[in-house]
Write a structure and sequence with these properties.
Number of strands: 7
Strand content: 25-35%
Strand order of the largest sheet: 6-3-7
Helix content: 10-25%
Shape: elongated
Order of helices and strands: EHEEEEEHE
Distance between the termini: 55 Å
Number of domains: 2
C-alpha cells in the first residue's frame, strides 16, 4: 500500500532525521493511503488492431500511407451503477495492449 507524509504528526514532531527510515520514531512520519474502489477507469478495446493513415500533399495527392496500432478509449466511472452500465456497453476492466504493426517487408525474407 502506498504511503504519504502525515502532516499532523510532522507538525508535532520538533526534529526528524531524514536519513532514518520512514515511519520510525526519528524518521519522517508517514501514513498509508487507503485504496479506493471508485473513481475507476474502464477501457473500450478496438475492433481492428491497426488503422491506416493516408498522408497527402497540398494538391491532395497521396504521398504515403502509414499503418499504426489502434488504442483503447478510456472512461472514468464514479460509482457501481456507472460501472455496470459501462461494462454492458462493451468496456473492459483491463487496458488494451496495442500490437506492433506488421512489417511490410516481411515477405521479402520469407522461406519459399
Amino acid at each position: 500500500m502506498p504511503h504519504t507524509i502525515d502532516i499532523e504528526r510532522m507538525k508535532k514532531q520538533t526534529t526528524f532525521d531524514v536519513s532514518a527510515p520512514q515511519g520510525t520514531p526519528t524518521g519522517i512520519p508517514v501514513i498509508q493511503i487507503p485504496h479506493l474502489e471508485f473513481p475507476r477507469v474502464v477501457y473500450k478495446h478496438p475492433v481492428e488492431p491497426y488503422r491506416t493513415i493516408v498522408h497527402r500533399n497540398n494538391k491532395f495527392e497521396v504521398v504515403g500511407e502509414e499503418v499504426v496500432p489502434t488504442e483503447h478509449i478510456s472512461l472514468i466511472v464514479a460509482d457501481k451503477e456507472a460501472l455496470d452500465k459501462a461494462l454492458k456497453d462493451g468496456y473492459k476492466l483491463k487496458p488494451y495492449v496495442p500490437q506492433a504493426p506488421p512489417d511490410p517487408d516481411a515477405h521479402l525474407y520469407a522461406k519459399q
